[in-house]
Design goal:
Blueprint (H helix, E strand, L loop, with lengths): L1 E8 L1 H5 L3 H10 L3 E8 L3 H7 L2 H7 L1 H11 L4 E9 L1 H9 L12 H5 L4 H7 L7 E3 L3 H11 L11 H6 L3
Antiparallel strand pairs: 1-3, 1-4, 2-3
Helix pairs in contact: 4-5
C-alpha cells in the first residue's frame, strides 16, 4: 500500500540545524518527498493541527504547551510517500518520549528528555519532529497542511528499479 504521511520538523529541529539530517534519513529509507515548505504557524492554524482531541488524550496543559511551542519558530512541513509510509516514518522518528526512543531513530539520536521533565517545566516536548500517528490522521494532516497543487507526482530511481522500467 502506497501511503502519504505528514512530517513536521519542529522549531527545535530547525533551530538546531537538523533539517538536512532529518530529510536524509527518510530519503535513505526510500521514502519520497512529494511536498515541502517552511512556514511560521499562527495560533489559529496551530489549534487546527493540535485539536481538542489531544486535550482528551493528554490534557489541556499539554495542548497549551504544544500550541505555544509550534508557533515559536519556523517549521518545515513535508509530505512523504512510500510503502506503508505512516508506519515506516513512525519507526524512523522513534518514540514520542525521547528517553524511550532507541538509538538510530531521529528522537533517539537527537533528544533525550522525558515527559516528567518537560511537565515539571510546563513546556512542550522538544523532540525534533512530528509524524502522523495513523493512516486516517495522516490523510487529515496532509489535507490541513498542503493543497493538492503543493503535492507532486514523480518517479524516483528506486521506484523505477522496483518496477523494472
Amino acid at each position: 500500500m502506497i501511503e502519504r504521511t505528514l512530517v513536521l520538523i519542529k522549531p527545535d529541529g530547525v533551530e538546531r540545524g537538523l533539517i538536512g539530517e532529518v530529510i536524509g534519513r527518510f530519503e535513505k529509507a526510500g521514502l519520497k518527498v512529494v511536498g515541502m515548505k517552511m512556514t511560521l504557524v499562527d495560533e489559529k492554524f496551530a489549534k487546527e493541527h493540535y485539536t481538542e482531541d489531544i486535550t482528551k488524550r493528554r490534557g489541556e496543559n499539554v495542548r497549551n504547551a504544544l500550541l505555544k511551542y509550534i508557533v515559536s519558530g519556523p517549521v518545515i512541513a513535508m509530505v512523504l510517500e512510500g510503502i506503508e509510509a505512516v508506519e515506516v516514518v513512525r519507526k524512523i522518528t522513534g518514540e514520542t518520549e525521547p528517553k524511550k526512543a532507541i538509538p538510530g531513530t531521529i528522537r533517539g539520536d537527537f533528544a533525550h528528555a522525558s515527559f516528567k521533565f518537560v511537565d515539571k517545566l510546563d513546556q512542550a516536548m522538544r523532540n525534533i519532529v512530528h509524524s502522523s500517528g495513523s493512516v486516517k490522521e495522516a490523510k487529515d494532516e496532509v489535507h490541513l497542511w498542503f493543497s493538492e497543487d503543493e503535492l507532486f507526482d514523480y518517479k524516483t530511481v528506486l521506484e523505477k528499479h522496483m518496477s523494472h522500467e
